[in-house]
Amino acid sequence: MMLWLKRATLVTTAVVTLGLALPAGVTKAEQLDMRSATKPVSEVPDKPTILKVEQGYGYSDPAIDGALTYKDFFKTEFFLEHTLLQAYEQGIVKFGPKITEKIGEQYEDFILPRFKEVLEEVTADVDTTEIDFLRISNDPAAGMGEKILHVYDERDGSDFVRFHVRRENPPRQGYWFDFHYHLAKDNFEEHYELGKIYWDKNTPPLWQA
Questions:
Q1: How far apart are the first and last CA of the chain?
Q2: Does residue 55 have a pLDDT over 80?
Q3: Is the pLDDT at 13 greater than 90, yes or no?
Q4: Which of 53, 95, 166, 190 fits as disulfide partner to 100, beta carbons 3.0 to 4.6 Å?
Q5: What DSSP state is assigned to residue 191?
Q6: Residue pair 32/18 in contact by the 8 Å Cβ criterion
């Protein structure tokens, strides 16, 4: 697995070692509040990472416009990395062993980094209090279905982002897997492409076969 994906449990690991990662000045009550604000991912391999935190109750990074409180940064990163890890794991489940053997590496190397960029873009303006309610589906579609995963609001079940893949068979070009996403802002009507992976001239097996 790529280095960046091996680091996909950045905040999950921090949950386990939170006392070591917290900056000076964070009270015990704040530590407990941080722990209650996040939910550890079950059955995730141990992939230790390093969380960089400045002295004091805050976090800053040149890539981030302004400074976030440590709690907000922690919460946002947990959501992003957990969603990315789920995109990897559920993608492998969806593909099944036959398809995974052929395209799994390309999916990890080329599609998932782009999906991570999309997640960062679409959550940039989402208030961290709203991130508390975002959840990830765990039922990728089999057969000919397109669904890999959906990010949804647990309060009303409404989808926020839909991450899909569909089969394409252009004339005389063989079969391609078209990875794309849909957004709630346009009622999921627009098709936003993430990338395509070539399969073969022969028909690919059904998803999860």
A1: 23
A2: no
A3: no
A4: 95
A5: -
A6: no
